[in-house]
């Protein structure tokens, strides 16, 4: 079995859970943040909607410079609604899944680097980047968004089992 085939069930499940969480973002709370040092709900939803696009960068390129010299840092267009976040997310998931399905084991074992301003931040095999910087990073920020939802009295979706808001018991 190819590595991509082993990763796909987990990828699909995590993307489904992320979508369920993004759907709950209240449009009237996009500028809310729990602390001055925290991202706004808009920034967090934008990040989650676009983070999965790193799958394509990871598979199709040898590196990604998030702050290319002489250019503005890479910043996605902020979302203006939950609907827009989900629409962006769905488009990025479809492209990511296509890239993952088409990736050979040899490609997934090749090194990939994250760069900022020409400075290498890390290099690791593409498969490790996909697990760590795409999926685990998504899970981390999705949990953060779950806290934002809870603090705004928005029902938190069931992800790995019942939530306090969606318990069958």
Can you walk through the features of this model?
There is one protein chain. This protein has 6 helices and 3 strands; from the N terminus they run H-H-H-E-H-H-E-E-H. With 169 residues, it is mostly helical. The chain has one domain: Four Helix Bundle (Hemerythrin (Met), subunit A) (Up-down Bundle). A hairpin with a 2-residue loop joins strand 2 and strand 3. Helix 2 runs parallel beside helix 4 (82-102) and helix 3 (54-60) runs antiparallel to helix 6 (126-151). The termini are far apart.
Write the layout of secondary structure elements.
Elements: H1 3-22, H2 41-51, H3 54-60, E1 63-65, H4 82-102, H5 105-109, E2 111-116, E3 119-125, H6 126-151
Parallel strand pairs: 1-2
Antiparallel strand pairs: 2-3
| Beta-strand residue percentage | 5-15%
* Structure classification: mainly alpha
Overall mean pLDDT stands at: 95
Enumerate the spans where pLDDT stays under 50 for 5 or more consecutive residues. none
Number of helices: 6
The largest sheet, given as strand count, sense and whether it forms a barrel, is: 3 strands, mixed
Highlighted features:
single chain, 169 residues, mainly alpha, Four Helix Bundle (Hemerythrin (Met), subunit A), 3-stranded mixed β-sheet, 6 helices, globular
